[in-house]
């Protein structure tokens, strides 16, 4: 999950995201999540964001076999599989 949120709502979005995913670096969270939890995550975020000002992008991989994570530079946050 990557996001670009107005400053007054960014802490709320991060707090919600960290309930379900692992913080990686500024505006980036990742991890495995069930369909039900993904639905809850989106529902909670939908109550906080303003669709005319904010943006959240989810990258969804169908299988772990076709995902790879590579970092250049300083490693921030934790490392888990990508949703």
Furnish the topology, listing elements before pairings.
Layout: E1 2-4, H1 7-20, E2 22-25, E3 28-30, H2 35-48, E4 55-57
Antiparallel strand pairs: 1-4, 2-3
Helix pairs in contact: 1-2
Characterize the structure shown:
The protein is α+β, with helices and mostly antiparallel strands and 83 residues long. The protein has one domain: Alpha-Beta Plaits, CATH 3.30.70. Helices cover 34% and strands 16% of the residues. It has two helices and four strands. The strands form two sheets. It has a two-stranded antiparallel sheet with strand order 1-4. Strand 2 (22-25) and strand 3 (28-30) form a beta hairpin. The mean pLDDT is 88.
Tally of separate domains:
1
Low-pLDDT ranges: none
Instruction: Write the element-wise H/E pattern from the N-terminal end onward.
Output: EHEEHE
CATH architecture label: 2-Layer Sandwich
N-to-C span: 8 Å
Summary tags:
single chain; 83 residues; Alpha-Beta Plaits; two-stranded antiparallel sheet
In short:
The protein has 83 residues and is of the alpha+beta class. The chain has 2 helices and 4 strands; from the N terminus they run E-H-E-E-H-E.
């Amino acid at each position: 999950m990557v996001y670009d949120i107005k400053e007054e709502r960014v802490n709320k979005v991060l707090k919600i995201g960290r309930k379900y995913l692992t913080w990686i670096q500024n505006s980036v969270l990742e991890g495995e999540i069930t369909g039900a939890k993904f639905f809850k995550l989106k529902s909670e975020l939908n109550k906080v964001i303003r669709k005319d000002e904010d943006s959240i992008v989810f990258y969804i991989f169908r299988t772990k076999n076709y995902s790879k994570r590579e970092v250049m530079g300083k490693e921030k946050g934790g490392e888990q599989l990508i949703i």
